[in-house]
Each structure stands twice: as structure tokens, then as C-alpha cells.
Design a protein that fits this description.
Rossmann fold, 6-stranded mixed β-sheet, 33% helix, 7-stranded parallel β-sheet, alpha/beta
């Protein structure tokens, strides 16, 4: 019996180009839930099973779902815990889930653990791209690029002072693959780099590529007081939800920048907008707000010195193909050892 795998429809071209693969793909596509049907579901007038069929459509090979061994969840998959449970019920032989993003806060991991299903995240798939975005924003803030764009739009001419990166410090909150890649880049341009880790002991042999590692739970305020740029690259969970509230934002330097490459809910957005409006914080760059896209009335659109980068930090024309190869590598590891890379459970 061929190995059945459930994968995004967009990956069809890659499977077609790799005909020697032993895996037989079943393809799914995602659909937007209509407004009326979403309202009916929230009122309890529509079952989750019907909603699942609307949002997550298996377009080829649905009859083989019970034989599915692995599933590749694209970055766009957003199912409730109940909807995900219903999907898992249709795949009793499922053994591995590959989630194409680093964070797992959108998944109820207990659902997979109860079924003995291994789950992997995307690991280092987009770490370099995200680190490069953060470095670009650090340069933009230090060299006043947003102010130059504003002057040009208003047809004004005024020379602006620039900061020297070799005299500045970047604090990276989160020392995983993204934070580590960013630390390497920042050291390369002369920035002093401080990292905040929940487990500094893992750097016992030395802080490389960071100059210094502080404890996330007890020394974060010191990192904020010393940093000209603060980059958030840590996962969202109960401990980190709104970690940056009004009190913590007040610990930052008045002219510093806050760069959030991670989940928007790490920051209290009202407190962030207040700090920027009052001028107690220099600027903020947000890749993924707590709600995306933000509603038209959101303060994020009109707050001064706040730039949205529209969930673009990890995007690339090569991303889908890279994810395809990462999925295949993980699938091979799962078949050989039962222990895929970047495993979270």
C-alpha cells in the first residue's frame, strides 16, 4: 500500500516534478468561511463538521483519508480545536504532522499527544529571512529612513542625524533559531547583542553569538534599559502573553525601537500605541498584529511611528518549495527512526 500524505494543493507542482517519490499525495485547499455561515456557527446553528468541510476541502484522494500517514499543515491553516479533532478522527492511521510555521500556539497539542501523533514545526525554515527583516528595520530606525520618506512625501528638505550601529545595543528577546540568526547578523555590523533566554544554562560553554545572555524571567528589565533596539523572537504562551505591557514598555529607552517578529499578542497593543503617541518610545515595527489583518478602525493604522510589515518577514517566492523539501526530509526521518526533526511533541 502506498504511503498516503495529506498536503496543500499548492504543492501539487512539486510532487509532479518528483515522480520517483514513494508517497502518494492527497491534496487539500483552504476556503474562507462565508460571513453568514460563520454567524450561524457562532449562534450554534451550524455544526463544526459542516464548517470543517467548508474551510478545509480535500480536493483529491478524500477516500484515502483513513490511510493517511502524515499531514503538511500550511501556514494558512487555522482550525478550532474541535474542527482539528474532527479532522484527526478521519485519519486514524496518522502518525506525523508537519506545521509550516515556527509557533504552535494555534494548535491544541494535546489533541495530537492523546493520539500518539508526532508534531513538528518549521524549525529554521524562515529564520534567516526573519532575521534579515529585523536587521533591515534596525537600520531603518538608526538611519531615520521613515522620517526621510515622510519628508519626501511632504516635499520638505531637512538633514537628519543618524546613529552609528557600532555604538548601539540590540536586545533579542528569545534565543531560538530566529534570535540566534539575528545575533550573528547584528554582531557582523558591530552591534552589541544581548539575548534574553528562559534557560541561559544552555549557553554554559559561552554566549556566542550573543555578547551576553540574561534571564528572561528576572533580568528582562535590564536588557530593556540597555537596548537601543528590542527584537521579539519568542513563542506565544500563557507566560509570554502581553509580556510587554505598559509597565514593561516604560522600561525601554525613549528613542528606542521595538521590533516584533513574533505574535502580536506578546505586546499589549493599546499600551504600545499609547507609548508611541506620548513619545515615550521611539518607534515600533510589527510584523503580525494580534488580529490580522487589523480592522479598519484599529489604532495601529493611525499611531505615529508605528510601521506594519504585513506578516512579510518569512515570505519568499522560494518558501513553498523549501517547505516541500523540509516536509520530505521530515517524512523520511519519521519512517527511518520515528523521530522527525524540529519535533515539539
Amino acid at each position: 500500500m502506498p504511503l498516503r500524505v495529506l498536503v496543500p494543493l499548492q504543492s501539487q507542482v512539486f510532487f509532479a516534478q518528483n515522480k520517483a517519490l514513494d508517497a502518494q499525495p492527497l491534496f487539500y485547499r483552504l476556503r474562507q468561511e462565508p460571513f453568514l455561515k460563520r454567524g450561524m456557527r457562532k449562534l450554534g446553528l451550524r455544526e463544526d463538521a459542516a464548517t470543517l468541510d467548508t474551510k478545509f476541502e480535500v480536493v483529491q484522494g478524500e477516500e484515502f483519508l483513513p490511510e493517511t500517514y502524515a499531514i503538511w499543515l500550511s501556514a494558512a491553516v487555522r482550525l478550532s480545536s474541535l474542527q482539528m479533532a474532527l479532522l484527526l478522527d478521519r485519519m486514524p492511521q496518522l502518525r506525523w504532522v508537519y506545521s509550516q510555521i515556527t509557533g504552535t500556539d494555534h494548535l491544541d497539542l494535546s489533541l495530537f499527544a492523546k493520539r500518539g501523533v508526532a508534531v513538528s514545526n518549521s524549525g529554521r525554515l524562515s529564520s534567516r529571512r526573519m532575521a534579515e527583516m529585523a536587521l533591515a528595520l534596525i537600520f531603518a530606525h538608526a538611519k531615520s529612513l521613515p522620517e526621510h520618506f515622510a519628508l519626501q512625501r511632504n516635499r520638505r528638505w531637512r538633514a537628519l542625524p543618524c546613529e552609528e550601529l557600532s555604538r548601539q545595543t540590540v536586545g533579542i528577546v528569545g534565543t531560538g533559531s530566529i534570535g540566534t540568526e539575528l545575533a550573528k547578523l547584528c554582531r557582523g555590523v558591530g552591534l552589541r547583542v544581548i539575548g534574553a533566554s528562559r534557560n541561559p544554562a544552555k549557553f554554559a560553554a559561552g554566549a556566542e553569538p550573543f555578547h551576553e545572555i540574561v534571564r528572561l524571567d528576572s533580568e528582562l528589565d535590564r536588557l530593556l534599559a540597555e537596548s537601543d533596539h528590542v527584537v521579539l523572537a519568542l513563542p506565544l504562551n500563557k507566560q509570554t502573553h502581553e509580556l510587554f505591557d505598559a509597565k514593561r514598555l516604560s522600561r525601554m529607552k525613549p528613542n528606542s525601537s521595538l521590533i516584533n517578529l513574533a505574535r502580536g499578542a506578546l505586546v499589549n497593543e493599546d499600551a504600545l500605541c499609547d507609548a508611541l503617541a506620548k513619545g515615550t518610545l521611539g518607534a515600533a515595527y510589527v510584523d503580525l498584529p494580534a488580529k490580522f489583518p487589523p480592522p479598519l478602525w484599529s489604532r495601529l493604522y493611525r499611531t505615529p511611528n508605528l510601521m506594519l510589515t504585513h506578516n512579510s518577514a518569512a515570505k519568499s517566492e522560494r518558501l513553498a518549495e523549501e517547505a516541500f523539501h523540509q516536509f520530505l526530509d521530515g517524512l523520511n526521518a519519521m519512517l527511518v527512526s520515528g523521530n522527525p526533526p524540529d519535533r515539539v511533541i
